Amino acid sequence: MKLTDREENGVMILEPAGKIMGGPDASLLHDKLYEFIDQDKKKFVVDLSQVDWMNSTGLGILISAYTTLRNNDGKLKLANVTEKIKSLLVITKLDPVFESYDSIAEAIESFNE
Amino acid sequence: MHEPIIKGNMISIPSSLEYLTNIDDFIEGILRGFEVEDSLIADIAISVSELVNNSVNHGNHSDSDKTVSVSISKKGTDIEIMIEDQGQGFNPQEISNPLDEENLLKDTGRGIFIVNALMDKVDVKTTSSGTKTTITKSIA
B15, B39, B65, B67: which could join B60 in a potential S-S bond, CB 3.0 to 4.6 Å? Predict the structure, then answer.
């Protein structure tokens, strides 16, 4: 898995690519999310367009960051959720938990609503 | 053992998650040889990754002297994969339901649930020498 990040209009955008399956690769995403959370960043978008698939480790990382942010007046949203990941969110009943958008731009814009 | 070993349709790794990608590459390569479609490859690869994660962390407790083995075969239109560790095993009945309200936002506890949802058959056998989990998926 590879990971890039950037900030746009005060929103942290994380773009993982590849497979999120556990081990050192998955730690990258977890550590980067918490690095920014520790810097008191509140608004996050995780773009999943380049993620082939993830397993429960990936879901756990997203949920952990989501709940940490929610408890600190922050928010984590998803963009470009692929069909494979969407089906995993449905199976685990996490689909209503995450706000998800069809593009990064829409996800960023939603923070202004 | 300190490196993955591949023999035919079987791979063994030391009990460390750093070798998950070795197993994933191995499984994907074999499934492509069987001409399995991409979506099913992903379902099988996700399930194998869940079970290998469990074997490394909960079965072998990341003991690098212990191994996790994965073997794959095609039986008619079924893909059958065996994941073996050297741990004490688990009782699938004792795993709490991740869909229960009190568990829904937990960051762990979904692995076996996902495997059961994605695979056609999941069989867990625990012996004195370890745990063997067999998953089956039809590619018909």
Answer: B15
